[in-house]
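Inverse folding, one chain.
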């Protein structure tokens, strides 16, 4: 005869409803987009594709530099 083991259902994982993480994401994305577009606009580039790719690179650099230097982003700092 085999014994059947019944496990309790896993806990409900939803996170907090405070919105702190959402606010941090909004702040970080807004700052990254503004900085990326401003930096790309300052470059002496004629082609729109190259300017767009450089804006994307600056967008990623915002997160890479922030996380690399301080292990956090400015948006996470404002929501703490």
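Residues assigned per position:
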């Amino acid at each position: 005869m085999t014994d059947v083991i019944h496990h309790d259902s896993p806990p409900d994982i939803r996170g907090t409803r405070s919105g702190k993480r959402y606010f941090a994401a909004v702040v970080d994305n807004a700052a990254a987009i503004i900085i990326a577009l401003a930096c790309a606009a300052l470059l002496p580039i004629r082609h729109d594709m190259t300017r767009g790719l450089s804006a994307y690179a600056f967008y990623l650099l915002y997160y890479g530099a922030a996380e690399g230097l301080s292990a956090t982003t400015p948006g996470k700092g404002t929501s703490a």
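Residues 20-42 form the longest helix (23 residues). Residues 20-78 form one domain.
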